[in-house]
Amino acid sequence: MSALPVIAALDTGDTAWMLAATALVLMMTPALGLFYAGLVRSKNTLNTFMMCVAAIAVAMVTWALVGYSLAFDGTGDLIGGLGYVGLEGVDLLPRNSESTIPHLLFMAFQATFCIITVALVSGAVVERMRFGAFLVFAALWSVVVYAVLAHWAFGGGWLAERGTLDFAGGVPVEMASGFSALAAALVVGSRKDYGRLALLPHNALYVLLGAGLLWFGWFGFNGGSGFNTGANSVLAFTNTLLTPACALITWFVLDLIRNRKVTAIGAATAIIVGCVLITPAGGFISPGWAMVLGFLGALPCYAMIAWRPRTRVDETLDVLAAHGIAGFTGILFIGLVAQVGWNGLADGLFYGNADQLLDQALAAIAAPAYAFAMTFALLKLIGAVTPLRASEHDEAVGMDVTYHGEEAYVTGEGAILVMPEDDGDIAIPVADPA
Prior knowledge:
Elements: H1 12-39, H2 45-72, H3 103-122, H4 131-153, H5 158-162, H6 170-188, H7 204-223, H8 231-259, H9 264-278, H10 287-307, H11 319-337, H12 340-343, H13 354-385, H14 392-397, H15 399-404, E1 415-419, E2 426-430
Antiparallel strand pairs: 1-2
Helix pairs in contact: 1-2, 1-3, 1-7, 2-3, 2-4, 3-4, 3-6, 4-6, 4-13, 6-11, 6-13, 7-8, 7-9, 8-9, 8-10, 9-10, 9-11, 10-11, 11-13
């Protein structure tokens, strides 16, 4: 007589936490829009934010239709199956015997990761990429890049089978977005004023507020990746507090050494770098090592941001440095300092297990290579069908007016529009067309 399958029971506490975590991660995308919008020139504020808003719609729909199935259906080495297409079979029961939350909630939580990753890539091409072309790119990239890498790391793919540790998305989110951003910047090309004029952030307060909201949302991003209210979620939650704080201190010191000033933009960037550093490692390393990661991991990211403007690559908002390099560093750091006593899975090199570092290094090579190559090819393909770049005129005027017919800021005293009515004229102030 065969044994009956073990069916996990739903846990209301775990479910409540994951509902909150999903909402926190979704909030990160408009927070990213605010962060990005402050970093660009004022004439591109709305367009930059709208790219993040568009990512919510496009990535969510593609994820529900096919992305989730390719990422989490089956255990193929390279890609999942089609059993969950259109959310077929994704219901209110746990997805497997180890889960304590509804399958539908697991899908929704994973969707928010896909959404923000697509939005992150936009930071490489803001101020010059056509909005329509970005929508096409977002839909295709979420399937051929994000879903594939999510399967490799989280869905039973070859990295997961090898034992690669990635707690909350160093592979499909951070390294994927960072190295895809590099490819996108190379294909789309530089802004017309790049290298000739100082293209400065127009609103540091937006940048700081966006960074603060992103840090807040990251507690759901990392803490929720334990999928319960247990010890691993608590560890990741706490480490998400520690690592960015330590990265901030390193950034302050570097800014003082380099410029004799602690900048607001630098502080906001340090928060993001710290959150990214701990994303892959959050539930695998001790709080002490999480602090070390923040202090030391900020160094290569700062160096990349300082060096990149000297190149001809206009990777506008330094997604490669803040996400690609930080994610790469976090993935490798796991291979050095992971401890069974904290994660229950594997030790790193410092604790006698060199194989774990090899597994992490393989992920740190394969994921960036795939993301870069596929993004490069995808944009070349889209560019063969429709232009990727806005015209020089549109770029000069600004993407807000060109693609949205609106401006973020109303300037001047404004004109008066007189509307005739039966009971008398009504004067309505409108924006000055000048």
